[in-house]
């Protein structure tokens, strides 16, 4: 094996041990980058058989069972978003049960079909009480996962569910998110090693994201008006969502004239706080095909973490999406240019802008220009985003936006989005989010979804 | 007002106790790894860069520049400015900018360390230099 090929084989754990053929299939988009041009020449014969960088590339692929990838191995067969935004009359566990029931029924399955369950820190008491409370069939339940990465937990759950399904560890996985920050207590979080050194300084979501926006403006000239366009786009979509908390269309002026919360973020740069939740069913290709819903599958997944890391070379202008994104795109064999619809976590406007840059929809520092002038509005701009109104206008259950990002992406791929915001022939979508505090410590996860 | 704000006492633990003992004596300590030479904050026993256990306490000057900040306009204890400052010695850390005109804070501004009392060891904050 040439030195160059070894380079490729060793650079991704999933690729170790792969054949040259499967390597070429999975890694071609990356080979287009200058660093791998030399390597690409070595497999030029294969490259001719499977042209790289073409839109239809992913259509030609037929993943085999032996590929070390989750590509195409798990389908989202059921989705449900709780219509409530204010639930004084319900318990948190009850909301979990209601969204679980909704997703199971949407899939056309029953509770006893569930053999995998995924939840995060919003589920009261974690796995033991939730499995028991829901009455999941414990003779059948054989895979559980309580990965907690804040708002992007559910994007990571989707990837982990696909891994478990690909490995045969479960076949029908339920993922739930629910809670009631408006009408009930929020679960306490255990203190980290940094507590004595940070707790006194009052980091909140507002000022932690504010610090990112402040530095982004300083480094790249990003403006409040550009950030406002993100909220404007979300509001254009929310007007068609009967469940959206904020249905009024707003203007750039409305956003920059709203009260300053934590410089430079205004009230309308911030997402809503809502009770509610959502759930999904992730299953095998065989089971999904036996059901009645349009087929939507996961073809790429990435996850990553970022923090101040001892204070060395602090840079708050990028997120862990710079790592999770390329991992997901590489696995999917597509590029940002191929994406027809984007669900991008919108805890704040700056969250969207930084993530779009980090995912490669535009260059670092050019996010402001990219989001301006309605570029994120469905039917108007080049990248329709958060067509349900997103967290900025519709729903942000338990201050965790990852689940609703997946749900609207699935609606778009099924053709079930509101007709006013449905992207025509939407066959490839991204759902991406971060969890934790972007300006302190956070995780990111990227899912590439395809309609089959 | 920042002067009357009550800050939580550090819980401390065996790994960080020397930092808080030094703080009581007015000394601001960071950690330096003698294996790779990198300094870090907050202090750890094992270097977060090279994973060596050869880390040493080192007194820092308390001089820093503001990397970024955000002024929280309302809170139960009034407005406050969270920030990351970059120490002259290298590491950046989370803090609050206090005891100066918060409306005039700028990225790149020079700041210096001030201690704020708690019921236990004092906590490090920064103010305009």
Automatic annotation (TrEMBL), chain B:
Enumerate the spans annotated as ChsH2 C-terminal OB-fold domain: 57-116
Where would I find the ChsH2 rubredoxin-like zinc ribbon domain in this sequence? 20-56
Q: Which PANTHER family match?
A: BLR3430 PROTEIN
**Name of the protein described by the UniProt record:** Zn-ribbon domain-containing OB-fold protein
Protein species of origin = Bradyrhizobium archetypum
